Amino acid sequence: MKLLRLLPLSLALGAAFAVPARAQSLLDLYESARAYDANWQSAKAQYDANLFHADQALAGILPSANLGVGVTRSHLDNTVPALELPYTTQSGTVSASQPLYRPANWATYQQAKRSVEVSEAQLTAASQDLIIRVSQAYFDVLAAQDTLAFVQAQKTAVNEQLASAKRNFEVGTATITDTREAQARYDLVIAQEIAADNDLRVKKLALDSLVGKPDVKPNPLTIPMDVPTPQPADVNAWVQQGEENSPQIAQARSAVEIAQLETEKAKAGHKPTLDLTASYNVTRSPNGTTTIPASTRANTGTVGLLFNVPIFSGFATQNRIRETLSLEEKAQADLESARRTVAQTVRTAYYGVVSGQSQVKALEAAEASSQSALDANKLGYQVGVRINIDVLNSQSQLFQTKRDLAQARYNVLVGLLKLRQANGTLTPEDLARLNQLVTKG
Q1: Which of 121, 168, 193, 272 pairs as cysteine with 173 (C-beta 3.0–4.6 A)?
Q2: Which CATH number do you get for residue 298?
Q3: Domain shared by 114 and 20, yes or no
Q4: Beta-bridge partner residues of 95
């Protein structure tokens, strides 16, 4: 019986919002947003820059080489004219150095690798944020479409009730009060229709600007639908997943490791350094020199070890170590704060989804009850035991319940995505699963 009562409205909504061939799924719109959204593009560019910045730290443990070439022209003024001789000196030097023991450089290199992990977590968080923004805008459009359709359906029902009240007044079976009540309700629904139409227009513009395409037509949900449940159905399991996968916790954990390595760098100020050096020099004077009138050439090669031991730096190293140890404590506190925040966010999101599912079931029952109440009031009005305002109130309650039910369904779907975002497991594949709940365009 419930399905039969809902069938006319479902057909009316299907006719009002028939999906054209260009309708797009949630996953399609997410891919479009990735190529257009400025926030995500900024995060991706920052990620690429951080990768290149991290690679720079590798130079501190790799060898370096230099080439130097020089030419000089000299002229000697002498009291003896025969010894006034201009000459040219040409030189070229190739030098290389390989750090053998530089603990500060090694710590910097390890920090760079942790910075890459931070960048990956930041990009993951940006991608998940984009998924939520696209999904929210997508379902906002669908909710606005449903609201407009329900208001228009209510307008049709109120208009029929207004016409009935006018007929009954004309034949003398009803008072003018019924007509005026129906007219007042009809005028109110007209105002609601104008507001719903404007809200739909605004929601569409928001979705268009997010994905970079004009006049986007999202695929509607298949009604009736089974609202997905969180799996696993244990909030503690979701919290544990958040500990392992949350980008916020990953960033905080890497920040602790970076702070610890910064302490190692500070302690390296007390440690010696050892470098392997080598050079090869060629010096040539084709016209001779002031002491040797013939052409000369000298080739010199050197290989050596450069050992440096810090002795005293004005207590800078000791104070730097104290500073980095304090920063380590701060990073540890930030990590603990991130863990608590993620756990709280996951629990809130989980219970929000569970509550939303219960609300959907309650509203489905309320929808059936409201439909039954409307049918009863219509019958009572026809036989004279109910008045016109009873029918109008029943209609208003029914369509308000339908709007609340549609919005509750969308809230649960977005809530499921936000739950996965909270524990760090949200991926585009989750959008692909949601695509199974929509009508294909």
Answers
A1: 168
A2: 2.20.200
A3: yes
A4: 66, 279
